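HOLO CASE FILE
Compound: manganese (II) ion
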Amino acid sequence: MIVVMGRDCSDEQIDEITKRIKEWGFDVNLSKGERKTVIGVIGQQKEEVKSSLEAFPYVEKVVSVSQPFKLVSRDFQQEDSIIDIGHTQIGGEELILMVGPCAVENEQILIDTAKVARETGCQLLRGGAYKPRSSPYSFQGLGEEGLKLLKNVKDKKGLSVISEVMDKEQVNLVKDYVDILQIGTRNMQNFNLLKAVGKQEKPVLLKRGMSSTIEEWLMAAEYIMAEGNFNVILCERGIRTFETATRNTLDLSAVPVVKSKSHLPVVVDPSHGVGKSEFVSSMSKAAVAAGADGLLIEVHPSPENAISDGPQSLTFDGLRKLVNELRELAPVVGKKF
Ligand code: PEP
Ligand code: MN
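Model generated. Tokens follow.
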């Protein structure tokens, strides 16, 4: 059972509730976040305990959840979560497109991409400043300099921005520059990082681990929410299978499956899913048809010169064409774009 305390509850009120729960013979798991305080009640529970807890005016809600993931679960919250991200919201009616280069390379590329993003109605600019590369000899990203470039373009062009945070020590720095913190596939089970992004308020886009089951992915999201940050967006980006024709196997069935299990918004990254730009457009449309709330797409002014992930990056014209097609498709599946 999960007890969610009201936003303005005091430390004394939290102590009072935990004391009561312990008196009834249960163990307590307390997660005190900046936004929400959540008390997990551990032990075999009865309906009377739930109603007694609900009677406290400063208790927001008490939910019994049978799934291993609790706060993430649809049992905990039936309605879809809608998350504010800078200039827009994700998880509502609007289809959200996050576009940009794999890595922040220089200011001009960001300015040019932001211009096309604005022109086509894409809401967010993406770009990695800290890059998790398979080889230590590959470009590792511009670091804080890259974040500054993103923030400048955000301020000039009025777009929201998303960038990856790789380490718990980077969270405080990255969060001041971006609207969404991205957790990459390789870090999906970096529990200290999950806890660190859970302790702050910026929305977090959690990519699915390349070898993770849906349940493991949802449990990773639970780590973030258990620390009090309920602004979590899930991102399917392809998983490892025996297939080698594409970079990964984009598991689009994960979209309706996750939506049935969880209230959190789901975004699809077809770029890393297929690894080849020629297939990005079809999989983007398939993702929207499957019910995705948004797409994270790599776009570069000259993919052949991109420092990373050029082969899977759309050109500006490729993006324009895809956006035109998505404008027709979105209303068919109940989305606005
Ligand atoms: C990225 O978005 O550029 C990235 C590194 O993604 P992933 O973690 O899915 O590989
Ligand atoms: Mn990439």
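CASE NOTES: The chain has a mean pLDDT of 95. The pocket of phosphoenolpyruvate (ligand 1) is lined by residues 102, 128, 132, 184-185, 207, 237, 269, 272 (CB under 6 Å).
CLOSED: yes
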